[in-house]
């Protein structure tokens, strides 16, 4: 199940970098369309991903370039497309009147990922790890409401709303992204999980650049120039995205998808901690409770992963 202890620090670092990248990307989204803002992650992240992979391949751990199975590229393409679809579905949820519900339901990704990895990859988790996943998901759902008080059962009653459907679908495609990434790394003939993760990262980002870049050129050609004009900030987004994805891919290559996702949700802790200690924003009681559940979920999931 867990093939290397590196999955834990890689996942924690990935959570920090993702929170940082999200904060920087908000500046880009103010001047670009949604699709253009999404493209900068891949277009500007690709050179950094190639540089990271080459640095590891030729300087850190020199070795022959491993052979890749026939399904490697298809799984990378599936992962890239699933991530693009998931992001767009989440944005569609944001556009709905009750976007809070959409955001909350998108956080079911960890549970959906656990179920999908069990069905598609044969991964098995202990009862303690499952308890951690459930606690963590409830915690991030609470945090995603942004402190809004929701009556008991309101989320269940909102299942019929478009925002809820988009949110659940977004979580499903994010879970599929993780499963496809894990499967793609298994197609590389190497015992080095970092090498396989970085190889999958480069191919996936390259395919995402082609897919979303082609769409932008076809449907929003006026935004292409704006993407290149924003290179100063977009370059930062690309660097953080490449570093964060390298960590996520390493986690997926070395540990069950569900464990990586539930531990990665500490991103919420980092984000709120930054808001509280740096921006001096006051934490609401519901946010404290949500943070507590996220931390409890991580502890239980880690406890359940110990053999």
Automatic annotation (TrEMBL):
Q: Where is the organism placed in the taxonomic lineage, from the top?
A: Bacteria, Pseudomonadati, Pseudomonadota, Alphaproteobacteria, Sphingomonadales
- Which parts pass through the membrane? 42-59, 71-94, 125-143, 163-182, 194-218, 230-252, 258-279, 288-306
What's the protein here called? EamA family transporter
Which residue numbers delimit the EamA domain?
8-144, 166-302
Keywords carried by this UniProt record: Membrane, Transmembrane, Transmembrane helix
Organism name: Sphingomonas colocasiae
A Pfam family it matches: EamA
């Amino acid at each position: 199940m867990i093939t290397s202890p590196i999955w834990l620090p890689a996942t924690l670092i990935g959570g920090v970098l993702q929170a940082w990248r999200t904060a920087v990307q908000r500046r880009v989204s103010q001047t670009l369309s949604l699709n253009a803002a999404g493209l900068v992650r891949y277009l500007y992240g690709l050179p950094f991903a190639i540089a990271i992979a080459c640095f590891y391949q030729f300087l850190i751990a020199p070795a022959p370039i491993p052979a890749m199975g026939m399904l490697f590229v298809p799984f990378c393409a599936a992962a890239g497309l699933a991530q693009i679809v998931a992001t767009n579905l989440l944005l569609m949820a944001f556009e709905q009147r009750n976007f809070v519900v959409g955001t909350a339901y998108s956080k079911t990704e960890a549970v959906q990922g656990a179920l999908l990895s069990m069905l598609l990859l044969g991964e098995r988790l202990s009862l303690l790890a499952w308890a951690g996943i459930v606690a963590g998901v409830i915690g991030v759902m609470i945090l995603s409401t942004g402190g809004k008080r929701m009556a008991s059962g309101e989320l269940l009653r909102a299942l019929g709303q478009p925002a809820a459907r988009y949110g659940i679908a977004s979580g499903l495609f994010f879970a599929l992204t993780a499963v496809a990434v894990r499967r793609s790394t298994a197609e590389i003939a190497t015992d080095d999980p970092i090498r396989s993760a970085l190889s999958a990262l480069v191919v996936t980002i390259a395919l995402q650049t082609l897919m979303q870049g082609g769409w932008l050129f076809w449907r929003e050609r006026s935004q292409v120039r704006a993407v290149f004009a924003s290179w100063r900030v977009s370059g930062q987004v690309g660097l953080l995205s490449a570093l964060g994805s390298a960590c996520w891919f390493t986690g997926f290559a070395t540990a069950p998808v569900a464990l990586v996702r539930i531990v990665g949700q500490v991103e919420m802790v980092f984000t709120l901690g930054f808001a509280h200690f740096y921006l001096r924003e006051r934490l609401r009681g519901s946010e404290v409770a949500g943070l507590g559940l996220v931390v409890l979920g991580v502890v239980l999931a880690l406890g359940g992963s110990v053999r």
